């Protein structure tokens, strides 16, 4: 039986959206970033996005967690 989100390698961002019940597609819509980039952000814990992409991601994350900081999710 398939269980959504189980057994996948997830980054801190991926774990956040899973915890709050969002899908990657919803995060794509909220952030305005491509599906491929969001997929990488959610699955690769070592990925560090460019400054512009990071700003869009953090805006979407703050809609979920108002007190979030980029250091909480990325090793910058």
Automatic annotation (TrEMBL):
Q: What CDD domains does the record tag this protein with?
A: HTH_XRE
Query: Which residue range or ranges hold the HTH cro/C1-type domain?
Result: 19-60
Record-linked InterPro entries? Cro/C1-type_HTH (IPR001387), Lambda_DNA-bd_dom_sf (IPR010982)
**What is the organism field in this record?**
Peribacillus butanolivorans
Source organism phylogeny: Bacteria, Bacillati, Bacillota, Bacilli, Bacillales
Show the GO MF annotations.
DNA binding
Q: What is this protein called?
A: Transcriptional regulator
